[in-house]
Amino acid sequence: MIYINIETDNDAFADSNLGPEVARILRKLAGQIEADPYQDGRRLMDVNGNRVGDMSIRFPIDEGARFVGLLEETRELLADHLPTLPSAVSLDERIEDYLKRGGS
Description:
The protein contains 3 helices and 3 strands. The chain is α+β, with helices and mostly antiparallel strands.
């Protein structure tokens, strides 16, 4: 579920600006959601730069459990592979290898 809270008790919403200002905030929020639909805790700002609300995401229990499962799988994958990774790679070694291959 997505919760959106906008407090409209400041000058940006005064007089006939209520509709246009709420619409402007929601259009901006819609673009942000399209770009990253799972970002939680977005701050909503009025045209004057004041924080006037927020948007939060609450996942259903089964969706939350799916994310927990994915996190656990990722943790296990990292635990399995981290010990096999070199502790450091020198940039000089990479450049040398690149040049040995003829720059390709």
